[in-house]
């Protein structure tokens, strides 16, 4: 197989899609052992001999100290391939599931920001909403154009595609330059994903041949790809997604010299303003592991004492609760001070004194238990301000055993704010 055009994530262009994608284990392994670049001071000993002149330049190349944490958290999502009909794999997501995910982002009240806004915020030049999402698509699959983009257009979400040079016009399942130009006219941001999408083994082999060979190799991967994408599509390429999430300390050093400002890994996590730009976390959304999307879209409300709410509890996702609740999961209510109620009459051996209700924006609320009806309820006492309201109810049984908290969310019709109380 021609190693230059085949990578761990991408089947050979024009070939069978049966080629096994990276396994989740490999993703985890890459995350834990490879994707995290060494601490800036922690240049490996074998590279240190060659590196000394670069270490000070690393410090001076850093444009400025990171602005202080402003409390904003950003989840960067990374997608690959889509299909409505082919079986889901780690790298291939069902198109209708992607659509539900995009809808869930909206229902959760998260804001999808462009790479440009993300970058401005990261530099401390601009504020973005406290809970923001950045959408990225790796490799340049044709299904991004055919399946994902129509959904993105429908929701009006900005997004970024990470292309690797050898897969552009790669035939088969690759996007063509013509398709990419159309997306550029739409305003898509383009980032580099290298020239050949090298395996870690290939990178190490080059590295083992000494600093000159390795530098030439990295320039081919990082500089040539940038120049190619910029000249072919008439855009500025200022961000880089490490192929397979794998990086070495030399990559961001050279990358900054070349004009890249942000480098993305496949390490899951939220980004703050203080997160180093050399190793930005990213949630790779796998078709076979829905929990990754849920984790990515779960933001803690540090200032509101709200229970973390997995996206799966939101409308259109997982919605079978064992006990009747009101408002119902995913319901759109036009009352900004609804009564929130759960019927716990079917809970056996319930100790009612242990019932606790949390409501987003309110923290723990003084809900009351009605023995006759077996309901636990609270009337919201000031107007709900957010497009979604998240509720969690927990309790113990008479022997003190805690039940798993019941969580759900409903939506608030914005226009209801103008109705009389
Ligand atoms: Zn890739």
- Under CATH, the topology of the largest domain can be stated as TIM Barrel
Shape: elongated
Distance separating the two termini: 69 Å
Going by CATH, the homologous superfamily of the largest domain would be Glycoside hydrolase/deacetylase
CATH class of the largest domain: Alpha Beta
Bound molecules: zinc ion
- SS element count, helices: 11
Q: Quote the beta fraction.
A: 15-25%
Number of strands: 19
The CATH architecture of the largest domain can be named as Alpha-Beta Barrel
Give Rg in angstroms: 24 Å
What is the H/E string? HHHEEEHEHEHEHEHHEHEEHEEEEEEEEE
Low-confidence stretches: 1-64, 303-319, 417-421
Fraction in helix: 25-40%
Description of the molecule:
The chain is an alpha/beta fold. The protein folds into two domains: 24-299, Alpha-Beta Barrel (TIM Barrel); 313-418, Immunoglobulin-like, CATH 2.60.40.1220. The protein has eleven helices and 19 strands. It has helices spanning 24-34, 45-48, 54-61, 95-107, 115-122, 142-155, 177-186, 200-207, 211-233, 250-258, 290-296, and strands spanning 73-79, 81-83, 92-94, 111-112, 131-139, 160-163, 189-192, 239-241, 262-264, 283-284, 325-326, 332-333, 339-343, 350-359, 363-365, 368-370, 375-379, 388-397, 406-412. Strands 1, 4, 5, 6, 7 and 10 form a six-stranded parallel sheet that branches. A five-stranded mixed sheet has the order 12-19-18-14-15, with no helix packed on it. Strands 11-13-17-16 form a four-stranded antiparallel sheet, with no helix packed on it. Helix 4 packs parallel to helix 6 (142-155) and helix 9 crosses helix 10 (250-258). The longest helix has 23 residues, at 211-233. The protein is elongated and about 80 Å long. The model is unreliable at 1-64, 303-319 and 417-421 (pLDDT under 50). The structure holds zinc ion (ZN). The site of zinc ion has 7 residues, from strand 5.
């Amino acid at each position: 197989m021609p190693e230059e055009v085949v990578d761990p994530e991408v089947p050979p262009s024009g070939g069978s899609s049966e080629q096994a994608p990276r396994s989740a284990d490999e993703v985890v392994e890459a995350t834990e052992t490879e994707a995290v670049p060494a601490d800036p001071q922690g240049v490996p000993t074998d590279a240190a001999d060659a590196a000394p002149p670069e270490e000070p330049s690393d410090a001076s190349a850093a444009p400025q100290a990171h602005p202080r944490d402003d409390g904003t958290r950003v989840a960067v999502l990374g997608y690959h391939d889509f299909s409505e009909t082919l079986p889901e794999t780690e790298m291939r997501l069902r198109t209708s599931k992607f659509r539900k995910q995009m809808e869930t982002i909206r229902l959760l009240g998260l804001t999808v920001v462009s790479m440009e806004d993300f970058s401005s915020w990261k530099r401390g030049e601009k504020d973005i909403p406290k809970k923001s999402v950045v959408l990225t698509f790796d490799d340049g699959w044709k299904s991004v154009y055919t399946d994902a983009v129509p959904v993105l257009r429908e929701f009006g979400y900005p997004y970024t595609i990470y292309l690797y040079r050898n897969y552009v016009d790669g035939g088969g399942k690759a996007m063509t330059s013509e398709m990419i130009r159309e997306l550029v006219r739409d305003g898509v941001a383009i980032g580099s994903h290298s020239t050949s999408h090298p395996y870690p083994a290939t990178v190490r082999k080059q590295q083992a041949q000494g600093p000159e060979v390795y530098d030439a190799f990295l320039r081919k991967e990082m500089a040539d790809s940038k120049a190619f994408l910029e000249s072919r599509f008439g855009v500025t390429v200022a961000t880089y997604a490490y192929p397979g999430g794998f990086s070495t300390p030399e990559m961001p050093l050279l990358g900054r010299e070349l004009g890249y400002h942000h480098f993305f890994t496949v390490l899951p996590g939220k980004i703050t303003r203080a997160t180093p730009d050399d190793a930005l976390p990213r949630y790779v959304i796998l078709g076979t592991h829905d929990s990754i999307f849920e984790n990515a879209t779960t933001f803690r409300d540090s200032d509101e004492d709200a229970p973390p709410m997995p996206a799966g509890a939101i409308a259109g996702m997982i919605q079978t609760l064992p006990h009747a609740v009101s408002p119902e999961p995913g319901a759109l209510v036009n009352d900004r001070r609804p009564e929130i109620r759960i019927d716990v009459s079917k809970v056996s051996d319930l100790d009612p004194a242990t019932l606790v209700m949390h409501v987003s924006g309110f923290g723990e609320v003084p809900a009351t238990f009605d023995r006759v009806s077996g309901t636990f309820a609270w009337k919201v006492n000031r107007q709900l301000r957010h497009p979604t309201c998240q509720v969690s109810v927990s309790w113990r049984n008479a022997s003190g055993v805690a039940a798993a908290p019941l969580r759900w969310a409903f939506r608030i019709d914005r226009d209801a704010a103008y109705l009389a109380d």
